[in-house]
Amino acid sequence: MLKEKYNITGMSCAACSAKVEKVVGKLEGVENVAVNLLTNSMQVEYKEDKLSSKDIIKNIKDAGYGASLAKNEIKKEKTIKKTNDDAIDSMKFRLKVSIVFLVILMYFSMGSMVGLPLPKFLSVKGNPVGFALTQLLLVLPVMYVNRKYYISGFKSLFHLSPNMDTLIAIGTCAAFFYGVITIYIMGYALNNSDMNTVVEYSMNLYFESVSMILTLITLGKFFETSSKARTTDAISKLIDLSPKTANVLRNGVEENILTEDVAVGDTVIIRPGESIPVDGIIIEGSTSVDESAITGESIPVQKETGDKLIAATINKNGSVRIKATEVGEDTAISRIIALVEEASSSKAPIAKMADKVAGVFVPVVMGISLLTFIVWIALGFGFSFALNCAISVLVISCPCSLGLATPVAIMVGTGKGAENGILIKSAEALETTHSIDTVVLDKTGTVTEGKPVVTDILGFDIDENEFLALAAGVESASEHPLAEAIVEKAKEKRLNIVSPKEFEAISGRGIVAFVGDSKIIAGNEQAVKEQYGDDESFFEVFKKGNELAAQGKTPMYFIKDGKLLGIIAVADTIKKDSKEAIQALKNRNIDVILLTGDHKSTATAIAKQAGIKKVIAQVLPTDKEEHIRKLMKEGHKVAMVGDGINDSPALARADVGIAIGAGTDIAIESADIVLMHSSLKDVATAIDLSKAVIRNIKQNLFWAFFYNSIGIPLAAGVFYLTLGWRLSPMFGAAAMGMSSVCVVSNALRLRAFKPKEIKKNNTENDEIELIENKRKEDKNMTTVINVNGMMCEHCKANVEKVTRGVEGVSNSLVNLEAKNVTIEHSADTDLEKVKKAITDAGYEVV
User: What is the dihedral of CA 322, 327, 330, 336, to 10 degrees?
Assistant: First the structure.
């Protein structure tokens, strides 16, 4: 299946977009097609073996429109901007010419009514035919500069797909030719000295109506196009983040070239204050980089040799040289722009109703106009009255408001999301998000930071910093994640770290190191007991350690020359804003569930800290998707939030999949929404934005249907016999132009959307409901394997991972205290493979 984008030209209203969509949709091999009137674009999914892009373009051209493949998204956005600018400039010129000739024409046609002087040879009484011919000559320049309506309108009519321009063309041509016929009638009456007929027809020439209709329609289109151009501001801002040029080192010479000309492998020189032009790896130098445009993090990030830099971020200080790894459309910022543009061009399900109406709107209006003319003639109200009503029906009808109601709001909404670091990948996702009632959260990297950090430092008869420095010195020789967390904490406090003289790892227990003349043991409770037996002096310390363990932390004991120095607890802590974000979701009456593969005690501890009441723990990656499916079957609208590869099936299954931006590419690919700032607060913001957009779309659709359902009967004279209401074609034209402006202006109110401030909530958590994860037990066996070498949550996770990877094993659960792993497996599972997997991972099977 191939997905392509096309630029479509020649569309003027929703009837046009509906026609293009219908033409392409009926082609063999086309699975999905969405035409966007706002961006003049089309997205098509089709089977390559049955169709080609040439076939699609040919069929669109045969329908009377232009089409071309859209290649580069950034270039496309620039082209759209240029096209909008050209359209606005053209309309300004047309408006100037139209207004000048309209003012002169109105002076001649209606000046005498307000007492304005007219030369006798051009007045109704002095020279009625000259009076009429002057108006004819004055309307011709207005018709000529606005010839676009006639070219497009009659071309569409010829292809049996009438559009808004067709209504304008037919209406104004009918009025114009009626005026021409009137001049002939006046000449004939004048020749027969029938002055009553001459005066009567001189007052019903309609030339001023033609000029006024064209001028007002163009004025409305000018306001509409100007407003529509503002809807792409968010994408324009993203494009403006990328520098236009780059300093590249080629053949030992520095060259300043266009960013789009940088090739993969080029060496790019970036000086302080410059924007980074491409994604790349630092090969020389160090600096700090402002990545707020991409990640939302305001604090500059220190970058050293080997670190990756992202295009559109800003080099704060220090000159660096980078090797370009992704350029052009492959850079992170280009992919973001493409994502936003694609979402803006897609269609929300709510738009289908408007599309169906728009597809038949113009032919129906033409039918109503003809019927109006016939009815008034039949009722004996005369040709002029009937024509007036028929023209009013044509020019007041506005298919544009229907066509713009949804895409303008979607464009502004997705753009506003991008401004706030929320990338919404489709209009359908944007619409669905507003109805979410259940949010399921992964734990690691979503609710928590995803890496261990020091949470507690308990020193006994020793200064805390001195204790931490000594512990970091011992652990500096280890590569274990817990050791890295302690060293990182000491570096953060800028403590002096002294590396040990000798170092020995005790598998599954801890380490023994010699610092100076002292022997230091660092490890878990088992390591202390092996060294000192069941020494009662340690019992109270172990009790404190167990309290920390109950909180989901891993306690590490440090002993120097037989004397206990203290305890350092390490844990994967919850993010600083997780609790407030979860409370914000609760305030919106949304159920929050923690779904994790971790042990229930750890999951419960994290849930308690985060304020989550419902926990589903010890879940296999495949089971996550099943739990999402179960919630959906119960009638819930479910959003899944995750960041890992194991979350991708659940993200794809959920009604809305939300990926943390710092997560894996696979998770981001599977998701419908990407949170670039990696903050759970943005989940609530995404829901609020979705509600605002859907509310705006409903308002637009209501106005579009209301306007047409009231305007058309009024123009047709339905209320004339009872209330005496009759609508001039000129007022109809003004109303038509302003209806589209109102719809676009209403959508632009979304630009004022701001995320609600999410405040901290200090209320205590209610009792946590632990939802037991029921596993399939059909023909399954359970085996317990004793394992030495496991000492922390990371060891636990590692052993569980490698055992689950063995064919036939459906689940595994490590008990750190008992030093064993319980596996659930089929009867024919090779247990030797399980043992080998554990041994290969660096642990000992007893």
Answer: 80
Residue type, 513: A
Among 315, 305, 312, 314, smallest CA distance to 332 is for 312
Dihedral-angle region of residue 516 (phi above 0 means left; psi in -120 to 50 means alpha; beta otherwise)? left
Polymer length of the chain: 846
Q: pLDDT class for 564, splitting at 50, 70, 90?
A: confident
542 vs 305, more confident: 305
Residue with tokens 């509409």, as numbered in its chain: 224
- Nearest-5° Cα angle at 445, 805 to 620: 30
Residue 631 has a CB neighbour count (10 Å cut-off) of 23
Contacts of residue 633, Cβ cutoff 8 Å, sequence gap at least 6: none
Burial of 498 (0-12, 13-18, 19+ CB in 10 A): middle
Q: Catalytic amino acids? A: 442
Distance CA 214, CA 586 (A): 54
Worst-scoring range by mean pLDDT, 438-447, 531-540, 716-725?
531-540
- Cα atoms found within 13 Å of the Cα of residue 11, Cβ hemisphere only: 27
DSSP character string of 211-261: HHHHHHHHHHHHHHHHHHHHTTHHHHHHHHHS-SEEEEEETTEEEEEEGGG
CA separation, residue 578 to residues 294, 549, 583, 607, 690 (Å): 20, 21, 9, 10, 21
The residue whose two tokens read 């066509």 is: 403
Structure tokens at 758: 């999410």
CA-closest candidate to residue 246, choices 227, 229, 267? 267
* Residues whose CB falls within 8 Å of the CB of residue 834, separated by 6 or more in sequence, listed in order: 783, 785, 803, 806, 809, 823, 825
Find, among 618, 643, 679, the residue nearest to 445 by Cα. Answer: 643
- For residues 651 and 657, the answer to whether their CB atoms sit within 8 Å is yes
**b/e map of 597-614 (b: 16 or more CB within 10 Å)?**
bbbbebbbbbbbbbbbbb
Residues 71-98: what's their mean pLDDT?
69
Residue 312 near residue 293 (C-beta atoms within 8 A): yes
- On the question of pLDDT at 142 being above 90, the answer is yes
AA letter at 812: S
Count, in order, helices (H) and strands (E) of the chain. 29, 31
Report the candidate in 805, 496, 441, 445 with the shortest Cα–Cα distance to residue 620. Answer: 805
Q: Look up residue 834 and give its two tokens.
A: 């399980």
Residue located via tokens 């609790």: 579
Quick one: tokens of 638? 């479910």
Q: Do 616 and 393 form a contact (C-beta atoms < 8 A)?
A: no
